[in-house]
Amino acid sequence: MTDEFECRYGFPAGTNQVRPADPEDRAATCVLAQVDLVPADLVTFYDSIGAVAWADVGNGYFVDPVRDVLLRLKEYGAVGIGAGQEAGGLVIGSNGGGLCYVTGASGVVYRTRTASLDDPEFDRVADDLRQYLELLEQSLTRFVANGEPGYL
Q1: What is the rounded CA–CA span in Å between residue 131 and residue 97?
Q2: pLDDT in the model for residue 85
Q3: From CA 118, how far away is CA 116, in angstroms rounded?
Q4: Which of 74, 107, 132, 140 is geometrically suited to a Cys-Cys bond with 128, CB 3.0 to 4.6 A?
């Protein structure tokens, strides 16, 4: 994906990687597992994957490190999601355009409609983390094939 990036865009490629979890990530994952609003598949994900950064796929796609997810939860609390926003969710990532991806105990993944988490509005993008990761993969594949990242 990045072989011809600089020739095409005039600047070097950014970080594009799926980083394996390190011991600090795994320790933070144990803390995350104790949070009530965390779906089990997110804990499983973070036990193996430290972060995803595809800075050059469209505006970018990022699955934040678990330590960032926990820090955001500690500093700002859970994000209200669902009907009437009474259910709590965690911001787990973003796109380079400022939109956030949020999931809660149900496992459904939502995307904010604006870059603000103050009174956010959401669109459902995936039924669970697995589908969300598959959509990310499709976005990467589509971007490599034709330069279009898809709708995520």
Answers
A1: 21
A2: 61
A3: 5
A4: 107
d(CA 106, CA 80): 13
Average pLDDT over residues 81-93: 79
- Structure-block tokens of residue 35: 């949070």
Q: Provide the residue type at 48 as one letter.
A: S
> Can you give the pTM of this predicted structure?
0.90
Can you tell me which residue has the tokens 């009437």?
84
- C-beta separation of 89 from 73 below 8 A: no
For residues 91 and 94, give the distance between their C-alpha atoms in angstroms, rounded to a whole number.
8
8-67 pLDDT tens trace: 778 888 888 999 999 999 999 999 999 988 999 999 999 999 999 998 888 899 999 999
Separation of alpha carbons 142 and 149, rounded Å: 6
Q: Which of 88, 80, 93 is nearest to 135 (CA)?
A: 93
The span from the CA of 106 to the CA of 82, in Å, is: 10
